[in-house]
Amino acid sequence: MGQSRNGTTPAAFVIRNYKRERLILDLTYILRDFLEETMSQNQPEISLIGIDLDPILIERARERNPRPDCVTFECLDFLSEDCGEILRGYLARMNKTRFDVAFCFSITMWIHLNHGDDGLEAFLRRVCELAEMIVVEPQPWRCYRNASRRLRRAKSEDFPLLKELKYTGDPSKHIENILTRLCDFRRVTVTAGNDWGRMLLIYERKS
């Protein structure tokens, strides 16, 4: 069972806990690190699309993609309408209405800092509309402070919405509240902290 740079094994977890073919939406490119070990002939086939805003990361993922026949990577803004159309088209080609699982690794803080509380809610609601299950790796609040501190040290403008955030203190609790209250998802499990001190929140659609 392979491990990512942050010590988690979400790809192996998903594959090993589902018997039939899975269709996966990966919201960051880091799942690519799992593919060489987890997508072997002994594993069930999956179809995966990974998206990220950074064109350099996407290009690297494409260059190192061991399974271009069933894994694709796209440089997209998930909150844009264009992205929604592309993902719905991808699902239609697979004769699916939703992805089986969506992975959100180390991304919610950046959505939160750049789009505020409303943006975080909109992001999670859109993911849940597209997926039967969601796996979220939230960054702890200290990462927010560190990101802000790095900008100030570089004499750059701080995140303009940071002081307006009401979802402060423990991002995991706020994300769990959004998933259950606004998205009608229920908890499957919450893992222990990994080497980076981060948990994985795993939730699924109620019906």
Structural overview:
Belongs to the methyltransferase superfamily. This is RNA methyltransferase. Residues 1-207 form the Bin3-type SAM domain. By secondary structure, the protein is of the alpha/beta class. The protein has a single domain (11-205), classed as Rossmann fold, CATH 3.40.50.150. Helix content is 40%, strand content 18%. The protein has helices spanning 10-16, 32-38, 55-63, 81-93, 108-130, 141-153, 171-181, and strands at residues 22-26, 46-52, 71-75, 101-105, 133-137, 185-190, 201-205. The protein has a seven-stranded mixed beta sheet, with helices on both faces. Helix 2 (32-38) links the parallel strand 1 (22-26) and strand 2 (46-52). Helix 5 (108-130) packs parallel to helix 7 (171-181). The longest helix is centred in the middle third of the chain and has 23 residues, at 108-130. The radius of gyration is 17 Å and the shape is globular. It starts with 9 loop residues before the first helix and ends with a strand. The relative contact order is 0.14.
Write the SSE topology.
Layout: H1 10-16, E1 22-26, H2 32-38, E2 46-52, H3 55-63, E3 71-75, H4 81-93, E4 101-105, H5 108-130, E5 133-137, H6 141-153, H7 171-181, E6 185-190, E7 201-205
Parallel strand pairs: 1-2, 1-4, 2-3, 4-5
Antiparallel strand pairs: 5-7, 6-7
Helix pairs in contact: 5-7
Short description:
By secondary structure, this protein is of the alpha/beta class. The protein has seven helices and seven strands.
What descriptors fit this protein?
RNA methyltransferase activity; 207 residues; Bin3_C; RNA methyltransferase; seven-stranded mixed sheet; Rossmann fold; disordered N terminus
